[in-house]
Amino acid sequence: MVDPLRRSGCRVRESPSCRAKEASVSVKKNFYSDNVSGAAPEILEALVAANAGDTAPYGADSITEGLQARFAELFETEVDVYPVGTGTAANGLCASIVAAPYGAIYMSEAAHLHGSECGGPEFWSGGNARPIPVPTVDGKIVVAEMARMVDEAAARSATEVPPRAVSITQGTETSTVYSLSEVRGIAEAARARRLWVHMDGARLANAVARLGCTPAEATWKAGVDVLSFGATKNGALTAEAVVFFNRELAQTMRYRRRRGGHLFSKMRFLSVQLEAFIANDLWLRNARHANAMAQRVREGLAKIPGVRFRSPTEINFVLVSLPQPVWDGLVAEGYSFSRRGAPSEGIIRIACAFDTTEEAVDALVAAAHRHAGTRQGADRPAAVVR
Hints:
Layout: H1 4-7, E1 12-14, E2 19-21, H2 41-50, H3 62-75, E3 80-84, H4 87-98, E4 103-108, H5 112-115, H6 120-124, E5 129-134, E6 136-137, E7 140-141, H7 143-155, E8 163-169, H8 180-192, E9 196-201, H9 204-211, H10 215-218, E10 226-230, E11 240-244, H11 253-259, H12 268-278, H13 282-301, E12 308-309, E13 317-321, H14 324-332, E14 338-340, E15 347-351, H15 358-372, E16 383-384
Parallel strand pairs: 4-5, 4-8, 8-9, 9-10, 12-16
Antiparallel strand pairs: 1-2, 3-11, 6-7, 10-11, 12-13, 13-15, 14-15
């Protein structure tokens, strides 16, 4: 199949897994990622307030110190919280700890730790962490396969990197979520094999919103030891956190974060984003909205003949293959999406964010129907490909 972006004459930028139009595209047509949006007004207001006056540097300020109590309240247990600037840093720092002194971390084939962070686990651990991809269904680890792989590696003794941990991406890179019982099942299998459990929660808010559970139920109550807590994709400017439920694991974190360049001198500006993010359920309200917009996209596209959904839509993006005329028409109108899989598969990700409007979604859907030559009310369900 001819690459639709190139055939349309659009300029594109390359990445390992996708192509997108240049950043000059209007935001209302940019469904490339949940990272294309700005920051939530509440976050910006908190940053402006934190900018007044002087305070202690390097995390000794009252805002950063107060995060311990705020996150303890959020998760209903005592925790150790370490703000960092990026999700890659959060994941890498977690990997360096759970794999120590050296070892393998088992994760989904699509996990960011495995394929999207440029060898981050190896870098942050000084080469001591080795990501091991596990077969998945709908982007979720098959626990029986993970257990088999761990057992086989352990049986090979000194000929194999020793298993140390498992990492769960919640929600997944295919827009699905693990149920609480699925998380517990993985954690129980890991615990039986003396493995730590890490959760990549870049979109934890979207998963919690989908599951209708508490943050505690989604994490430590299900067996998670340490969490990469995401905020940037859901309204923060740039702020993530590493949250330790097993506080013994946090013993070396302050040194690792400092050495890795994520002990910011003006840490209050990261911390205040996290404080505002979890205050008054902002993080969940933003996530619920983004999830709802993705459902609106899916429902709108579902009646176009030839549309094939590639996975369930349980969080804030849709994986779909569009008919060629629809794809060509949307790209010509200036819409941006990210590509997934091989170009011949024609799979795109349509991502919604906390600030995606109903009007923007409806305009996208209307344009898709227009290029398909269909009416939006026509009752023609799309195929679901698994």
